Amino acid sequence: MSAELPTDEDRLARVALTRVLEPGDEVGGRWLREAGAAEVLRRLGSEEKRLSGVTARRWEGLRARAAGACPEEDLEVAASVGARFVCPGDAEWPLSLDDLGDARPVGLWVRGRPSLRMWAVRSVAVVGARACTQYGAHMAADLGAGLAERGWVVVSGGAYGVTAPRTAKRSERVGPPWPCWPAGWTGPTPAGTPS
């Protein structure tokens, strides 16, 4: 699915669509596959008939989100903090994400120098309950550290509980942590999560 290099227009549209489509949205993913990101964004901004697979109410909600997207500004702010946008077709796009089909991400916000594709080759997520016991959090931190010692990149959502920052920090002592934040590169979620 990631064979073609993205055009500047496609990349900019994908940046905007990260503000519009929810992660894992298979209907939106089908639109991207069938029409391309630039056409999907154009249709969301026009008065043309809605794309298939959504109700009129959902379409209007997506159109409202699209109207508020400022992809150029998002790219400028990202660059100012050392982040970049990686999308399907880029050299560092993790090809394993293509296995998700229409549910694959629109794109990924990445911060740091290492190649995302290389990091994804040997990565593992340590996940679990937000309301875990202290023992559960301790075991998750030990597991993450043990995997990092063996050369694995430990992926963490950085939220409360098992994926809390302490799990990533413990792993960081022996290998690089890879936080994956649902809200993008600006920081961990939910908002009250300690960093």
Tell me what the structure shows.
The structure is a single chain. This protein has two domains: 8-111, no CATH class; 122-179, no CATH class. The longest helix has 16 residues, at 134-149. It has helices spanning 8-17, 26-35, 37-44, 56-68, 71-80, 116-121, 134-149, 165-172, and strands spanning 83-86, 108-111, 123-125, 153-156, 177-179. A three-stranded parallel beta sheet has the order 3-4-5. The chain has a two-stranded antiparallel sheet with strand order 1-2. Helix 1 (8-17) crosses helix 3 and helix 1 packs across helix 5. It has eight helices and five strands. The mean pLDDT is 83. The protein has 195 residues and is mainly α.
Keyphrases for this structure?
5 strands, 195 residues, 2 domains, two-stranded antiparallel sheet, 3-stranded parallel β-sheet, mainly alpha, 8 helices
